[in-house]
Amino acid sequence: VIKRTAAYKYNTRNNRSSGKSYSNENKYKDALKLFELDSNYSKEQLEKAWKKIAMTYHPDKYHSDGEDVYKMMNQKFLEAKEAYDYLSEQIKH
Q: What region does 36 belong to: left with phi over 0, alpha with psi -120 to 50, or beta?
């Protein structure tokens, strides 16, 4: 279980709408590129790629590296989470 700091929760609320605005096609391509998947990805491949990205960018891992690093990793983590959610929705369709 990962404890989330108050700063993480605050940043999550504030950064929800600050994601990049792309067309759906660009968003799809960028998400696939981030997770290093091809267009015929499976749910299992997506889950494996998400775990790898989450472990890399999770902001709690960088809480002692300074505020700038923490904020940058938090932003990357939130962008990766948005991409994961988007790709998960694409599997259902």
A: left
